[in-house]
Amino acid sequence: GTGGKEGKGWKKFQSYKGEGALPPEVERLRIFVDRKAQTVILPMHGSAVPFHINTIKNASKNDEGEFTILRINFQTPGQLAGKKEDTPFEDPDATFIRSVSYRSPDGHRFDNICKQITDLKKEANKREQQKKEMAD
Amino acid sequence: MTTQFDRIFHGLSSEVGKFRVAASGMAWKGAESDGVVLMAANHIDWVQWLRVARNFQLRIGLKDEKREYRIEKFDGFMREDHDKLASLMKNHFGKTLETKEISFKGWNWGATDFQGSNLAFLVSDKTAFELPLDQVTNSNMAGRTEVSLEFSSLSSSTKPSAKAMGDEMVEIRFHVPGTHTKLKGTGSDD
To answer: Which domains occur in chain B, in start order?
Structure first.
């Protein structure tokens, strides 16, 4: 790998500047969609881990018996996109999180979170599209 | 003299308890159960401070007479507790409360780092999260650049009410671009 070099066309984005900006809801150790920060916060073994909507590809939900599985897929290099232009990456040689799956007995809540993530992604895509049109 | 902190969690448990610091050591006692965690002053090796989901965590490295190592984690400290804890650690145990830097950038790329029994994911050289490898029940390589880790159910062992439980991560997949170069001999992709 070439390493270290910033990928072409990658625009900087960031969820939070510091821990003080985390919303208080993270205390509940549950997935939280922070619309204002365009971020999905995932509980990971006691930590609150933000993921900016730009890193997220999509979210899906599956029922497995009495549990519901929520899967969040992330943008990573090497995916056969097959549409639009290639997503630029800051460091294509880094290790990427490709997906995470969560399990809950509360299917209704996961359904709701899945919708919130999908809506947030739609909004972000729309904004991106508008920016492009303005630039043209 | 004993200093007490209320509403402190031990590890990932949902039970709150009281955390006490005295010259003889530290102790946590659960409010509902009779659970007690004792840490003798002469066993305390290091102390760390970091932001977690339930506010701040005090992480303590312990080494007993048999040189057995253990790490205890206590969540629920407030930002304002830092200075008080730092001086308690210094005065009682002669230890410096180190701050572990955490990333809140929201990026999904970085580097993995094995730290003891944890796999840490670092974003811009700061920890984003840690995964306990002793809770990994299965791992897989799907293709040449994808590694997945599956986790055992936390709820099955302790059986708390579903209401009190947080959301449970059951699987994480990593895209590791350099993986195939490290594999000797190709041919199997599983």
So the answer is: 3-99 (2.30.29.30), 111-182 (2.30.29.220)
